Amino acid sequence: MRFALIYDLYLKKVERKNRSKAELNQIIEWLTGYDAVALQKQIDSDHSMEIFFTQAPALNENVTLIKGVICGYRVEEIEDPLLQKIRYLDKLVDELAKGKKMEKILRQ
């Protein structure tokens, strides 16, 4: 799947729940290490989710604090590294859409 397509789905999801694009971008940047300019380049590109995560500067050191179930799987138990990163992002977006405070989403 293309990252830009997934990003659009994430954006629609969070906006339906009265959250903002800026908040979505903040959690993606927190997770991946992209800055705003680099993230926008990824959104504008035709890259797959795999390339998006491969090119990410660095996963946040607190990524292991992301726990819970997403799509029926515990994110901390997913063995495939790429799938786990995707599910980490899914989990953060779900938390944003459910109205959690940014401090909790960003594990601060």
TrEMBL record:
Classification via Gene3D superfamilies: uncharacterized protein sp1917 domain (1.10.8.290)
Highest taxon above the source species: Bacteria
InterPro entries: SP1917_dom_sf (IPR023204), UCP033199 (IPR014580)
Annotated protein name in UniProt: DUF2200 domain-containing protein
Lineage of producing organism: Bacteria, Bacillati, Bacillota, Bacilli, Lactobacillales
